[in-house]
Write a structure and sequence with these properties.
The protein is mainly α and 119 residues long. Helix content is 56%, strand content 3%. Helix 2 runs antiparallel to helix 3.
Length: 119
């Protein structure tokens, strides 16, 4: 039995899967910095950051958009930035924290389907 008279708004954490996956990829990629495999990592991280940017836009959490845009630009494999390996090492850990922060804070309200048409 519920103690509240009014139902609580329910939320979905839509960025949880890409955020956790991005953090895992960023941490696992520390070992391939400076090698050819790092290009694949850059593709993966920039795509996952773009997905999280769409989710944060949908959730109207605008403050994540500049951070995720910076991630997309820095990890862009088409026009790569020439940074030393030590900088990439630090950035990989920083981006994993960003991915986890976005994953756990971006949430969308669950839509009520009572007004939907029957098929």
């Amino acid at each position: 039995m519920s103690t509240s008279r009014y139902p609580q708004q329910q939320y979905r954490r839509v960025g949880l899967a890409p955020g956790i996956l991005g953090a895992v990829v960023a941490l696992a990629a520390v070992g391939v910095i400076g090698e050819d495999w790092f290009t694949i990592v850059r593709y993966a991280l920039s795509i996952l950051a773009a997905i999280l940017a769409v989710f944060s836009f949908q959730a109207r959490q605008w403050w994540w958009l500049p951070v995720l845009a910076a991630v997309i630009v820095v990890w862009n494999p088409v026009f790569p930035l020439a940074l030393p390996d030590e900088a990439w090492f630090v950035l990989q850990y920083a981006v994993s924290v960003v991915f986890l922060a976005v994953a756990f804070t971006v949430r969308l309200p669950v839509e009520d389907d009572r007004g939907a048409r029957n098929r």
